[in-house]
Specification:
Helix content: 25-40%
Radius of gyration: 18 Å
Oligomer: single chain
Distance between the termini: 29 Å
Number of domains: 1
Number of strands: 13
Number of helices: 12
CATH topology: TIM Barrel
Low-confidence stretches: none
Order of helices and strands: HHHEEEHEEEHEHEHEHEEHEHEHH
Structural class: alpha/beta
CATH class: Alpha Beta
Strand order of the largest sheet: 3-4-7-8-9-10-12-13
Amino acid sequence: MYKTLVRPLLFKFDPEKVHYFTFSLIRKLSKLGFGGLMKSMGTVEDKRLEREVFGLKFKNPVGLAAGFDKDAKLYKELSNVGFGFIEIGTVTPKPQPGNPKKRLFRLKSDSAIINRMGFNNGGVEEAVERLKSNKDVLIGGNIGKNKVTPNDQAVEDYKICFDALFPYVDYFVVNVSSPNTPGLRELQDKKPLMELLDTLQKKNEQMPSSKPILLKIAPDLTDDQLLDIIDIVRETKIAGVIATNTTISREGLTSENKTEMGGLSGKPLTNRSTEVIRFLSEKSNKAFPIIGVGGIHTAQDALDKLDAGASLVQLYTGFIYEGPKLIKDINKAILKRG
């Protein structure tokens, strides 16, 4: 139904406008009592799907990646669609509008999306207010820096977000890998990244009960840079890695929008993100958990990432192209394996 009726209609309109329309529609349907119908589309209830990763219990291993619910506006409703966990953000200390529109592009023939949103969000305090009413949704908090903050002061932005979100999220994700904030990826270099993660870990250790901190990395890192990531995880003792963010590569694309600037997500990322997961898992001797994300459009794509070494997976572009049934398909495929 989604792919034959709903998606063709939605794809006739501007993707960013459709995103906000869909948010409004899901909220209204939930209020009108259609929550049960939406839940049946993607939910599989089975104790065998539960996973314990970095000290947290996930009801199933399929989560929603950051970028979809930036401001924590729809996490309850999205959880009811079948996701085992929801990652909000990327949030920044101060509200910011993001990059000028048009900034979101569908690449239909490639089953992909290019975005250059630029961390558009209402600021961390706005997200906190919404998260205060959360009762049972497992939430990840993806944090970043404001565009106007120089890199040599970026640590302060991450500290502000960390402190504000700490009581309201279950784990943190440090985002230094988005290609849409000028200079941000420079923070992936070993020295600034060590400083940033060390600072957050020290704050974490001072809390009555620490929370997992994960690092989200780009798929465009070289093998040497990935080896650096393994060293950094070991030395800073963060909980794990999310592999991967969007790519700046345009290899093999056929769509007319392929030259747009921004981060590419969707099917073209499927193999590379799996390669990164496998490299990190094998070279580290499975020393830390990995959340696999990037190009998951089928249940097999998710299984491939789990086989490569991921403990959990996340959806974003695949969810847009395939609909809630993809969540159900993945969880059923996991159960079928036994």
